[in-house]
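Format notes (please read before filing issues)

Several people have asked whether sequences and structure tokens are stored in separate files. They are not. Every record keeps both together, in the order shown below: the sequence lines, then the token lines. Line labels are part of the format and must not be stripped during preprocessing.
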Amino acid sequence: MSQAKFKIKKGDTVQVTTGKERGKRGVVTKVFLDEAKALVDGINIVTRNKKPTQLNPNGPITKNLPIHVSNLSHVDPSSDQPAKVGYKIDKDGNKVRYFKKSGAVL
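Then the structure lines:
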């Protein structure tokens, strides 16, 4: 199975566009290319009940679950709003990501 490429990368600030977490923002900690999902810090937190053991003396644990990349949008720091991202070649010949509205490079 070939891996897809996404404009969302590790360390990007994103905002959730749909779902129960709509409007929340966070930083991407990991991207799962095969599943087209991203792990965002503070988003999609769930509680799992685990039986207490010596290694885990507490009962329930909380953890982040991945969210689909189609439900995420980059946040433009200049306007502090969700914005679309594109690719362009800079003067040095490097491929860079930029915000389409403001023109700022990520």
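For reference, the curators noted about this record: The first strand starts at residue 13 and ends at 16. The mean pLDDT is 91.
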